[in-house]
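Thread: Newbie trying to understand structure tokens

Hi all, I'm a second-year student working on a class project, and my supervisor (Dr. K.) asked me to get a predicted structure for one chain before our next meeting. I've only ever worked with sequences, so writing a 3D structure as a token string is new to me. If someone could post the tokens and maybe explain what I'm looking at, I'd be very grateful. Here's the chain:
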Amino acid sequence: METGTKSGEVRVEKVGGKSMVTKCFSKYPLKFIIPKKAGPSKTDSVWIYSLTYGGGIVSGDVISSGLYVGDGSTTVLTTQASTKVYKSLGSKCSEQLFEKQVFRVVPGSSLVLVDWITSGRHESGEVWDFNLYKSTNNIFFSDGQPLFLDTVLLEQGGIAPLAERMQDYRVIAMVVLLG
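---
Reply by user tm_fold:
Sure, no problem. This is what the structure looks like when written as tokens:
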């Protein structure tokens, strides 16, 4: 993986029979936290928390990261809390979020992928109150063959406002279990 354009990268490999982080770097606005202990002592899994400074994404943030999990290794990559997208004054940029996750899996590997979004801060009247949300999740075999290609696109406009089209739904989730 080329690290020059990435905000961060983590590599997990088997070392002495245990899953271990062998490479980790991150730069603003991304940070990785890797606790020494997460879960029962017999669990061979590296937990990686991905977070941004200030707890969210601000207008203009571009984040690109890579995660490599070696043969026989187990890793959990998650966020410390829900990621917030903060509004910026006088700009529509913060009312749109584009997210793309690409996974490459080798035969025999497993993947649990959960991608979800909530409608916003209900108490503040922010229910599906953004212009555009686009989340793409692609899973490929190591030879480049596509296994799973999915995009969720929510945008204002059309026949009715987004909040009206979503009715009483407050969460959308996509879950993929592989292996």
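A couple of things are worth pointing out once you decode it. The two ends are 24 Å apart (CA to CA). The chain has two domains: 1-86, 88-179. Feel free to ask follow-ups in this thread.
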